[in-house]
Amino acid sequence: MKKDEIKRSPGSHPRSDREGGHRRDAGGEKAASAGNKPARPVDRASEKRADARKLALLALSDVTIGGGYSNIVLDKRLREFTLTPEDRALATSLLYTALEHRMYIDYLLAQFIDHMPEEKIVREILHLAVTQIIYMDRVPDYAAVNCAVSQIKGYNRPQYAPMINGALRNLIRARDAGELREPDRAGNPVRYLSIMHSVPETMIKRLVDTYGEDETEAIVSFVPPEHWETVRPNLNEISDDAFLDLLYRKDYHFVRGGVAHSVRLIGAGDLTATDEYRSGLFSIQSESSMLAAMAVGAKPGQQILDACAAPGGKTALMAEQMRGSGRVYACDIHSHRVALIRRTAERLRLYNVRPMECDATVPRPDFDRRMDGVLLDAPCTGLGVIFGKPDLKYRLKDEKIEQLTAVQASLLDTCSAYVKPGGMFVYSTCTLLKEENADQVAAFLERHPEFELLDDDAWLPDDLKPRLSHGMIQILPHRDRGMEGFFIARMRRRHD
Description:
Blueprint: H1 50-64, H2 70-80, H3 85-100, H4 102-109, H5 120-135, H6 141-154, H7 161-176, H8 189-197, H9 201-220, E1 228-233, H10 240-249, E2 253-256, E3 263-266, H11 275-278, E4 282-284, H12 287-294, E5 303-306, H13 313-321, E6 327-332, H14 335-348, E7 353-357, E8 371-377, H15 398-416, E9 419-429, H16 438-447, E10 451-453, E11 472-475, E12 486-493
Helix pairs in contact: 1-2, 1-3, 1-5, 3-5, 4-5, 5-6, 5-7, 6-7, 8-9, 12-13, 15-16
């Protein structure tokens, strides 16, 4: 087997993240279309998985009622329970699948419940039950129904048990008869896409305005064909070939990524617990994030600013490109996130990184025209990564987008002042909206004619070079090898 060929086993489903962290693990479950759920073998063990379902319910409530973030609350709840690996996978899959399809599940429930009770826990119990009935082939219908009834009784709300039991059994009958209704696509395509793919209508409208209806559907319906975690070697410590040899010796299942030095690991488990990670031999970082850092073109001896740097993946890549020389100033507004950058640099032994707590919208005259390169990976709506963080999409409101675009414009104006003549200015986001991306860059260039976009594509993999347009590239997950949705613009300050 060649080193660039995939090495994997059936049923492997790792986690992945933009620059490391927790993301959905399908746990071997396979989604089925509503109304066309195949026959399933009875899984009697699932009846004994009450703790996994309890954990999922608590985590779901933490997100939908308590306002928490899915990855954070799930990690917290997993630490509170002692579960088998299979039950951890079930709880994780339940949470993320319920969140991913939340609006569609509400639409289904409305066909069988005239008025949802005001007590919020009833809705969450129903959502977890419908998640199992519609999307999880290995869970028997009766187990999902019985568990929901037991859970509501466990919350001392037995008066809702008949309603829950009846609604779920009616849904099962309608599913088996092919009678689950869908919204009218011809009459209101935006509403149809919103409900069927659980994305707020305001986001669908904005995406349709940019990409059209068909491309928007491809964007919001995308699910990676496999779940992987992308890693790259610390080139100051280990070469590409030596790193691949290490992966072979560890018996990992992997395939080479499309971006230089990247490797996609399949079913690798918790990589942060490995000796190799802790000793700084590699980083966990998505290919899109790597490209944003590579766009700066950092070279030994330079002065570089990473303006919104936490958790430090892009900072680390640029520092490694500089071979320990020069300086990478890594800024973040929050002290606890600066601590993340510092730990990353220490783990990788990158002594040319200078973590700094600062507000990147506030000018720093001491940085004016000092930097050979500035990377501004701006705060954004995150629409490019919603397939792994489904709760993010429900937090997006028009007023939130307006606030973000104002912050982005302020960051562009402030950080551009630090670029020396001939220096590089890279603006990136992990979103897909033109008002945060190409429109934002166009407005910046009107205000700052001293900058120009660069058409050079040498920093891109060959398959992505055709995507570059006037110095800007929009990466779409469904189109570009499952890479996270990123926008990157490369600009240079003209010489005086």
